[in-house]
Amino acid sequence: MAASWRAESSSSRRGDNYGDDTVCVAVGKDFEESKLNLLWALENFPAKKFCILHVHQPAQTIPLVGGNFLASRLSQNELRDFRELERKIMHKILDDYLLLCHQVEVHAEKLCVEMDDIGRGIMELVYQHDIKKLVIGAAANKYYSEEMMDLRSSKAKYVQRRVPTSCQVWYTCKGYLIHSWEADSTSSTTTSGFADSASISHHRNEGGGHELELVEVPQSEDDSHSLDTLQEGSSLDQLYGQLERAMLEAEKFKLEAFEESLRRGKAEKTAVKAVCRAKTLETMYAKELRHRKETEEALAMEKENHQRTKRQLDEEHLVTKDRRLFQQIQVSGFDQKLKESNDEIFFAMEQCKEYKKERDELLVERDNVIKLVEELSRKQTNTASCSQMNQSLSDFSLLEIQEATCNFDPLLRIGESGHGSIFKGTLRHSPVVIKVLNPDSIQGPIEFQQEVELLSKLRHPNVVILFGVCSEASALIYEYLPNKSLEDRLDCNHNTSPLPWQARTLIATELCFVLIFLHSSSPHSIVHGDLKADNVLLDANFVCKLSDFGICRANSLLENARDMTLSHEMDPEGTFYHLDPHFLSTGELSPASDIYSFGIILLQLLTGKSAFDVANDIRYKIDEGNVSLYLDPLAGDWPNVQAKQLARLGLNCCDMNPSNRPDLVSEVWRVLEPMRDSCSTSVQYGSQDSEQPPSYFVCPILQEVMQDPQVAADGFTYEAGALTGWLESGHNTSPMTNLVLPHLNLIPNRTLRSAIQEWQEQN
Prior knowledge:
By secondary structure, the protein is of the alpha+beta class. It is built from 19 helices and 24 strands.
């Protein structure tokens, strides 16, 4: 059985021997665990040179999104990248040990080997480099006690059995000496038990490095029996490995079957909804067709009645004419008869003209009815299609917008956007924010339509809710967020209290969360394009809500099939200091542009500075060593480790080269998610009860959160069942104003219902 290894050292030479003047200290990947053993060695060997000895044990399972996976299940490129990341982390830990030595002015170097068994790796380094002095841990620090006399670590026991007699070994635990092994100067390193059981040979690989291959050589019958036992254990390990792989495959197939059942259920629900919509439209069409047929039948019957009446009148006129003619012949003679006949003929002609005119009017009326039926059919078809597209948005009238803003009172203006004014108002007894488009703006109508189209389909806990639109005033109606924007809170505008560091950490996490949602949207990735602190709003519980999607769709909903597509916009919009320099110079907008703006906001949260100061001054001066000099004192005492991690993330996100910026899911979120979990349990700010619903979620009658909100004629929103019970009990007045309702019709408030459902999912 052969074991392959690779050793790395800070020295440029391989195979150097360490004599009596060098103390080798075996350390692990837990810095705090092995630091005490290194400090013990530095204290007890003050005049010696030191070598930090480490055995890197590659991980057998790889943590990825969705769980841990066996290394054998990954592709060669993925496995190579993960192993390279493991080695970088290992060398970073060894550099921390070297830094500890340099702080006490002791020369030290590092020596490491990569092997699955740590004890065997230590012994290979001892034999290869002829180590004379070795300090190794006797047990984990948690097992230390004053009565401890024996070795509890399996690695230490393995070293005790295999160590050559020429090597002195000190076994320590938690900075205390537990046991020592004195070296025999007359012995040779090749006479130990470990050397007897294996022969060591060196050869050079293709890359120029060294490999050490151990070949088991049984020396006696006992050794042969041990080899047979080892082979039998290896067979059992192989069987267990096959069993584990089979279980993993079964779990994979089970997961795939579960996902397939979810997709099939979703497809069935979609099919049922489509069938229901088709049946509804078919019913409406049949109803309109039946109504049209009835109208045509009524017109035909009316025409027939008209013709019958005309014939009767003609017959009556003829009879009357004949009777009068006969009487006139009898009384007045022929002249009188002729005169009366002429009069009758004239009268009959006049009557015919009137009947013809009446007939023409009926025909015109019939044509108008047919046109009306066709127009109603078209309107119903358009209404059905529009309701399918924007079924969650309410359409407000210009009169409602004017009443909500007191006819656009300047005192209610709370801000100015690039293409209009922003007002605070009360609409249907709920506080809202109304953004009115400037009529002189050229680009404004395009952004208005883009934002309506995007937000009507977009739902996320950290995206501002669009309640409705007013086409007459070109206005957008949003939910009202009492804590203003992140820019206002960082500047402490309006005498507001500063944000603590816990709140800032949660805001950064939520902002990363919503960017991941936008960038992973299907079928097209969504890039915000104007990410800045002024567009990050805070609700009553200081939960961040991303707003201002005016230029988002034009720059992000791309038609290319590539995952990371770019669009060319030679006239970039947004605040200059938040925008990606690569985008400003080339006009290419991608998700990496949002990552750059996110890095600027991270540095603002840390320092409390404006975007201008961060982009032009602090970003080039701050680093992990002096991050405490730039922290915002108003945020409280940042944890040093957390502040350094956030500073590193912010600087990496602001890298001038877009390809060097970190990935939000695999790099940024892995750092921010543990911070979110720790901060969410300790932070206390905003309202006393974060689960308290907004007042406009509560029914005025039941005083409970509404499930089916309906708008009554008095303008208030009630639970449908509660208001129906109120009306059916004989009331025709408003439960809130006690005034008579103009009508008893109810209008579903779909936007409010969608917001309530999102709030319930969060809590």
